Automatic annotation (TrEMBL), chain A:
The chain crosses the membrane at residues 12-34, 40-61, 68-88, 94-114, 121-141, 173-194, 225-248, 254-273, 280-299, 305-323. This is ABC transporter permease. Its main location: membrane. It is found in: Cell membrane. It comes from the Bacteria. The keyword Transmembrane helix applies. It is a multi-pass membrane protein. The keyword Protein transport does not apply. GO terms for cellular component: plasma membrane.
UniProtKB/TrEMBL annotation, chain B:
One of its GO terms (molecular function) is transmembrane transporter activity. This is ABC transporter permease. Its main location: membrane. The lineage of its organism: Bacteria, Pseudomonadati, Pseudomonadota, Alphaproteobacteria, Acetobacterales. Pfam families: BPD_transp_2. The chain crosses the membrane at residues 46-66, 73-92, 104-130, 137-163, 175-196, 226-244, 256-275, 281-300, 307-325. It comes from the Bacteria. InterPro entries: ABC_transp_permease. It is a multi-pass membrane protein. One of its GO terms (cellular component) is plasma membrane. It is found in: Cell membrane. Keywords: Cell inner membrane, Cell membrane, Membrane, Transmembrane, Transmembrane helix, Transport.
């Protein structure tokens, strides 16, 4: 048992990888439809948005905080950008994504001010900013959904691209969305930043202990602003990408998504006490969660069970993480 | 001695600030809209609606006393009254006089079921937090999902409509001309106040919240005390659920979702320290009155619910900023 705990502490990715393999094999055994390229590709596509948002949550969690405001930020960035594009008659890809990302950064920095300068617990800060931002969007900007006929065509065309298509057994074609590549590039970037830059190391150091990080010379203020700024940027980017991928901009979207994303990050081995967690673990956690929740239908389980399953995953994953880290708390 | 004096002074400034806030809000609303705001109906409706939110805020404060939080209170409230509602539909009938005229022992049994559900749900949270050492945030996010999920599985989505008349009396009736929910609230709040400030249990909770390690070294049974505090939180949430379903004559898996932020807001505004150690029932009551006056005023001025959300969120952030500013001055 002791060596298992040690292995888990060193390589939390192994546990989630094992869970993923078991889940995939079980689901594939019960219903072979799972192995169809169309299903596999759609699972990968479904993990893009949750995945990018999970990277944002990972950053905050690594520093010992938790973020529940990112769905509101994502929706704000998406809705404001699409609204602006329609109002100005602008269509494109790069500039809108830059705008959505900038909105995300701005909102993220608000979180940073409250967390760093006003010394408030991140959960309560982000609960406040999330509610306020969503209230602002729905109460001031608008409540109407922007449908495909109004969505900027270039944006949709961008999100529609496939990396490649294969022909399935029944003759239908299945394509792998190119957005998976976007997700992979972002994940690689965050991974390299966390592992190979001074900023990345300072995020881990901050999660290990703020006072300690300060005493060894890390600039905790800059680190905190970087974390929440980057988390906001990822949320804003993911928000617009989400709108482009589903061809609609709905200001009431993503309600309750924070729980799924946090579940995925925790499942990926990140510790809420900070300092523990990795991009690879998080990506595996996202994929596991997406595979399990999206496969309930092909397993013949009623979709009303989805919440119970997600909740049980959170509890199981946190219990294992807590057991792994029990020495730190005691 | 000086420490105690300091503590008293601190509590007093908090209460004082709240009293000033309440008076200001009241005066502002009354001045802006005297003929519509200063009507007995407005205050009467507050006495029916405020208690359920007040109980949730007290529940949140109890969890915060030990530095925790309970994000599952809404789910517990909904699960409690859904189970009671389904029980009534089983022993009575889904609708009609059989249901409405259920005798009081049956209604009492329903109250027992709801309370028992709340206590059991709280015990699950408590076990996860004290035995498995899962962080309160993640444990209650997970259990909240599971409880809401169970609600969905039990009801399939739609609301459980129709409760016995006696049950409705708890939420809609009056006793000696006072709203029944208010009576329930005052009794429960009084009991919790007594428990927190006049018994060893309450003092221990505050001590654990101030410094868990010191409390453990001082020989307090921290695990058991924290466990009991979550059982109490669950029980309070289920009473809130009883009031809510009694008032609306229905129970649903997603009722009162916006109460979560409001409960946190009231607890923080009442001077509860989310990091633990500080919180009081009188503070909660004052903050509750202030916010109910504010929200009635906003509703009278025909603000949309989304704008009210924006103002709630802004208020939470403002109160954090104020608290930080006060601390800096000291």
């Amino acid at each position: 048992m002791k060596s298992l705990a040690l292995t888990l502490r060193r390589h939390p990715e192994w546990m989630v990888a094992a869970v993923l393999v078991v889940a995939v094999l079980t689901i594939g055994l019960i219903n072979p439809v799972f192995w169809q390229p169309a299903n596999i590709f759609s699972l990968l596509r479904a993990s893009v948005i949750t995945g990018i948002l999970a990277l944002a949550v990972l950053l905050v969690m690594l520093s010992g905080g938790i973020d529940v405001s990112f769905p509101a930020f994502a929706i704000a960035a998406m809705y404001l950008t699409v609204k602006a594009m329609i109002a100005w008659g602008f269509d494109g890809v790069l500039l809108p994504f830059a705008m959505a990302t900038a909105i995300g950064i701005g909102l993220g920095l608000v979180n940073a001010v409250f967390v760093h300068h006003l010394r408030m617990i991140p959960l309560i800060v982000t609960l406040g900013t999330g509610t306020a931002v969503r209230g602002f969007i729905l109460g001031v900007v608008g409540t109407s959904q922007i449908n495909i006929d109004q969505m900027p065509p270039l944006l949709i065309d961008f999100a529609r691209q496939d990396l490649f298509t294969v022909t399935q057994g029944d003759g239908s074609a299945a394509g792998l969305s190119a957005m998976v590549l976007v997700y992979a590039v972002i994940a690689l970037g965050v991974h390299l930043m966390l592992r190979h830059t001074m900023m990345g190391r300072s995020i881990y150091a901050l999660g290990g202990g703020e006072e300690a990080a300060r005493r060894v010379g890390f600039n905790t203020r800059r680190t905190t602003f970087f974390i929440y700024g980057l988390a906001g940027a990822l949320a804003g980017f993911a928000g617009l990408l989400h709108g482009a991928m589903i061809w609609t901009a709905n200001p009431r979207d993503m309600v309750g998504l924070e729980l799924d994303v946090i579940a995925a990050v925790v499942l990926g081995g990140a510790s809420i006490f900070g300092g523990r967690g990795s991009v690879i673990g998080t990506m595996l956690g996202v994929l596991t969660l997406v595979v399990i929740t999206n496969s309930l239908i092909i397993l013949g389980v009623d979709t009303t069970w989805q919440r119970v399953v997600v909740g049980l995953i959170v509890i199981a994953a946190t219990a294992v993480t807590a057991w792994r880290d029990r020495k730190r708390i005691a | 001695m000086t420490a105690i004096a300091q503590r008293l002074r601190r509590v007093d400034t908090n209460l004082l600030q709240l009293v000033v806030l309440t008076v200001l809000i009241f005066a502002g609303m009354a001045a802006l809209n005297p003929e519509r705001f200063l009507r007995p109906y407005v205050f009467e409706s507050i006495t029916f609606i405020a208690p359920e939110l007040g109980l949730l805020a007290i529940a949140m404060m109890v969890a915060m006393l030990t530095g925790g939080i309970d994000l599952s209170v809404i789910a517990i409230a909904n699960l409690s009254c859904i189970l009671a509602g389904l029980f009534f539909h089983q022993v009575g009938a889904p609708r009609g006089p059989d249901l409405v005229n259920l005798p009081w022992p049956m209604v009492a049994a329903g109250i027992g079921i709801a309370l028992g559900t709340g206590l059991a749900a709280g015990a699950v949270n408590g076990l996860l937090i004290t035995r498995l050492r899962v962080t309160p945030i993640l444990a209650t996010i997970g259990t909240g999902q599971v409880f809401t999920g169970i609600c969905l599985v039990l009801t399939g989505g739609p609301a459980v409509v129709g409760f016995p008349r006696l049950w409705g009396q708890i939420g809609n009736g009056t006793a000696f001309g006072i709203a029944m929910p208010l009576v329930v609230f005052l009794i429960v709040a009084g009991l919790v106040w007594f428990l927190l400030s006049r018994t060893a249990f309450g003092i221990n909770l505050a001590l654990i919240g101030t410094n868990a390690k010191a409390a453990a070294f001082a020989g307090l049974r921290t695990g058991r005390t924290v466990f009991l505090s979550y059982v109490l939180t669950g029980g309070l949430a289920s009473i809130a659920g009883i009031l809510l379903s009694g008032r609306t004559n229905a129970a649903k898996s997603d009722y009162g979702v916006s109460y979560l932020l409001q409960a946190v807001l009231i607890a923080v505004l009442a001077g509860t320290n989310p990091a633990g150690g500080r919180g009081s029932v009188p503070g909660i009551i004052l903050a509750l009155v202030a916010l109910m006056l504010l929200s009635s005023g906003l509703q009278i001025m025909r603000f949309s619910n989304f704008l009210v959300d924006l103002i709630w969120g802004g208020f939470l952030l403002l109160s954090i900023a104020l608290a930080a500013w006060r601390n800096r001055v000291r």
